Amino acid sequence: MHLLVCGGTSCRASESALIAESLKRELEEKGLGNEVQVIMTGCFGLCEKGPVVKVMPDNAFYVQVKPEDAAVIVAEHVIKGKPVKRLLYVNPSTGEHVSGSGLMGSYRKQIRIALRNCGSINPENINEYIAREGYAAIGKCVTEYTAADVIDVIKNSGLRGRGGAGFPTGLKWEIASKNQADQKYVVCNADEGDPGAFMDRSVLEGDPHSVLEAMAICGYAIGATKGLIYIRAEYPLAIQRLKIAIGQARDYGLLGNNILGSDFSFDIDLRYGAGAFVCGEETALIHSMEGMRGEPTNKPPFPAESGFMGKPSNVNNVETFASVPVIINKGWEWFSSIGTEKSKGTKVFALAGKINNVGLIEVPMGITLREIIFEIGGGIKNGKKFKAVQTGGPSGGCLTEHHLDTPIDFDNLVAAGSMMGSGGMIVMDEDDCMVSIAKFFLEFTVEESCGKCTPCRIGNKRIYELLTYITKGNGTLADLDRLRNMCHVIKDTSLCGLGQTSPNPVLSTMDNFMDEYIAHVTEKRCPAGSCRDLMKYTIIEEKCVGCTACARGCPVNAISGERKEPHFIDQEKCIKCGACFERCKFGAVLIN
Amino acid sequence: MSSIKIELRKEDVDKINEICDSFGNEQSELINVLHKTQEHFGYLPAEIQEAIASKLNIPVAQVYGVVTFYSFFTMTPKGRHPISICMGTACYVRGAEKVLDEFKKELSLQVGQTTPDGKFSLSSLRCVGACGLAPVVLIGEKTYGRVAPDDVQDILKEYQ
Ligand SMILES: Cc1cc2nc3c(=O)[nH]c(=O)nc-3n(C[C@H](O)[C@H](O)[C@H](O)COP(=O)(O)O)c2cc1C
Ligand code: SF4
Ligand code: SF4
Ligand code: SF4
Ligand code: FES
Ligand code: FES
């Protein structure tokens, strides 16, 4: 029997390490220390319900476990074989406790390829990876395949880059393989700068070996002997697990000279980022790895021609790599049978925001938004109404209820005015103001623009200012036209992908929610009731009993009225602090 | 560069030189050198940057350019209890801004500042990977999840 304790970032933040310790202690006390293993895994994908403990082979999922629960799990489940009902996952639609991950709505529609081992193996033990066909793919490559064969398999599989743009991976490898040089590099992009996304980090935390193995396969295919992983220094757990994994792989002869006795040699080092979104862009990333400011440069030359230290370099995303070993093991035919015509395989999304089941999901391309949000995600939090979902982070756009039944793949998302991006998927409900959301992303862009080119450096600032005016009720209809024009200029004239996509959140919210923009500028009203400066506090005469509580709490003396008489708010004076609303016990203060 | 003037002691300079040596004094290792140095000193004031520049034999402007480019590097010391509020998208839509405002109000601090007694500093970051617990606040190594503005006073009390 195994007890798997989630060691992903979210569960660790709610003390899952303590749970693991308590379980171990309980088992020791009962003399079961040797028979039952406690293993810290990567994210199970059910972060909302964390910390999560899974009992294998019974497949029982315990959610929101506390360290104190360790005793009952050991006493009841481990010893008597009776699952602890109160800790089992509850199906939100039926209200029943369920056991067995196959039964859970969250898992049913998922196909786990990149996440195949996340939550199932101990990421700090290479033997568990090997037990699940780990390093079999690199073995197959160096013994049975030529470099060209490997490239053919990847090309035929239809795998496209998961870092955002969706460039065909096999083609990229082919280009890099044809460029001759004394040294080539395989680079793994683990920068993951999209705010609100944690897919790549979770793969590295939960299954680091799959990325290492894939990088070696890529090295074999393109003729490189060195690999570099560019990862943020802010991801200490992922870094620690990568270091352990690299050490173990070297000890097993799976990295280093003459891998598995072949004449192929390959080794991997880590390079640390320091918190700059633009460094996720591949040319900027390369400059950053060279110790410089991470400023993008014009393409061409592409990294495949002149990359790290001027040598041909193949840059791929973490999730792209994580899919590679399975494709080699199971064959391209299998992989290309999943997904849509032009987007094969699966995509990992970090589903978050106003949704019941926040977590990491992996779904086949072509699934609909409706399935993701209402089946896997368990619907909108607190029974509110679905409004929109943002994909592609600050480079993407929003999808609305009109898109609920559109099959999700690279091309359909672009056609809908958004993009796949790296996989952040933020769900918004009726209380979210779309102008504020656009402003939120632009604030991010302004902070993260590297400043190299004018349209992005200055233009985004102007857009941000205009959005601020609008949310404060100072915008005009003419500003909306100006906004749209500026967005197009920035898109057309910026040097790198950051500037070329930064206006997308504005354009997409304007396309889908123009009525909200118009309400802000013409009626000075925020339909979602979220823009503070546009809130209006009034007192309903019929409900007011004249208790004076509100007037005494108002910091600017904006409320007048005699005791036992209806009170009145002077709109000129009111600073919209909300104190009156909180103080009124009679529900007489109205916000709109 | 920065308003804080410090005097580097001999052992500080030795430490900086030792870090640079451990990376072979390679200019391309500048970012790694800065990571290690910040890990040791807690921040990277002008004087430290000058010492690194002279050891690696590069212009101070280049070091400064890199330090100011990356948000992870800081030129001002953090408080003993550094407070970081996650302003990633998931936390934002679940009300992180109101939580941040509450911290600002309670501590009379702006983002990027440290209290005069050096106890708290306030910063924002983007997604700590715990979106399931949004909104998320980090104080030192400790993570607080599902923080509401009303919780802020109680949280701060833990550090009295
Ligand atoms: C502003 C910007 C940020 C990016 N951030 C990332 C990132 O965090 N992770 C990533 O894999 N790709 C990112 N990319 C895409 C990379 O430039 C590159 O296309 C990708 O790493 C290639 O890998 P793939 O083909 O496997 O997707 C970013 C691009 C831009 C323009
Ligand atoms: S578009 Fe923005 S981020 Fe990209 S190079 Fe220009 S200023 Fe820098
Ligand atoms: S919102 Fe604040 S300022 Fe306005 S009337 Fe109420 S208490 Fe006074
Ligand atoms: S607190 Fe409510 S009931 Fe009392 S005076 Fe104000 S509005 Fe009227
Ligand atoms: S971190 Fe534990 S389920 Fe995601
Ligand atoms: S957005 Fe705050 S933890 Fe992800």
Q: In percent, how much strand structure appears in the residues of chain B?
A: 5-15%
Oligomer: heterodimer
CATH class of the largest domain in chain B: Alpha Beta
What structural class should be given to the helix and strand makeup of chain A?
alpha/beta
Main interface pair? Answer: A-B, 53 and 37 residues
Secondary-structure map:
The complex is a heterodimer of chains A (592) and B (160).
Chain A: E1 2-6, H1 9-13, H2 16-29, E2 37-41, E3 53-56, E4 60-62, H3 70-80, H4 105-108, H5 126-131, H6 136-144, H7 147-157, H8 169-178, E5 185-190, H9 199-206, H10 208-222, E6 226-232, H11 236-251, E7 267-273, H12 282-289, E8 313-317, H13 318-330, H14 332-336, E9 346-353, E10 359-364, H15 369-376, E11 386-391, E12 397-400, H16 410-415, E13 424-429, H17 434-448, H18 454-471, H19 477-493, H20 497-501, H21 504-512, H22 514-523, E14 537-539, H23 549-553, E15 559-560, E16 568-569, H24 579-583, E17 589-591
Helix pairs in contact in A: 2-3, 6-10, 6-13, 7-8, 7-10, 9-11, 10-13, 17-18, 17-21, 18-19, 21-22
Chain B: H1 10-22, H2 30-41, H3 46-56, H4 60-69, E1 81-86, H5 89-93, H6 96-107, E2 120-125, E3 137-139, E4 142-144, H7 152-157
Parallel strand pairs in B: 1-2
Antiparallel strand pairs in B: 1-3, 3-4
Helix pairs in contact in B: 1-2, 1-3, 3-4
One iron/sulfur cluster (SF4) binds at residues 537, 553-554, 556, 558-559, 569, 574-580 of chain A.
